[in-house]
Design goal:
CATH class: Alpha Beta
Strand order of the largest sheet: 1-2-5-6-8-7
Number of helices: 4
Structural class: alpha+beta
Low-confidence stretches: none
Distance between the termini: 29 Å
Order of helices and strands: HHEEEEEEHEEH
Shape: globular
Number of domains: 1
Length: 135
């Protein structure tokens, strides 16, 4: 039996056009700021993964390739995908208003969180993923 292709795959869609098309002004500005932060911390050019995830870098999972970190400016909140997770992370207590999922960090708007702490969390997650999944 053939292995099913993952639903979310890297595409050739424009990240710039995707971010520019975000309807809510605050969410669009936040998406631009997160893109700038991720580019700076990773040294990677972003790529679209599926129709709504902006991803940086890549690693291979049992089900196929996936971005090392990424984000999506959803209507309800800004979602940051930092695959290494957040369990027991002391920085999370200093971050500000947020929610977490398995490997998702949900932020209503960037103004709700400490930018320096967010930067540390993203940098730590990126480094951890690079160590776990070297190229």
């Amino acid at each position: 039996m053939a292995k099913a292709e993952p639903k979310t795959q890297r595409t050739k869609a424009s990240v710039t056009a995707f971010i520019a098309a975000v309807e809510d002004d605050t969410r669009r500005k936040d998406a631009k700021a997160v893109d700038k932060l991720f580019r700076e911390l990773t040294g990677e050019k972003p790529a679209m993964w599926g129709p709504s995830i902006v991803g940086y870098g890549e690693y291979t999972t049992p089900s196929g390739p996936w971005p090392r970190i990424g984000f999506s400016p959803r209507k309800a909140n800004l979602v940051l995908y930092i695959m290494d997770g957040y369990d027991g992370e002391p920085l999370m207590k200093k971050l500000g208003k947020h929610k977490t999922g398995r490997s998702c960090l949900y932020i209503n708007k960037l103004a709700d969180v400490d930018q320096g702490v967010l930067r540390e969390i993203v940098a730590k997650g990126w480094k951890s993923m690079a160590k776990k999944y070297p190229e």
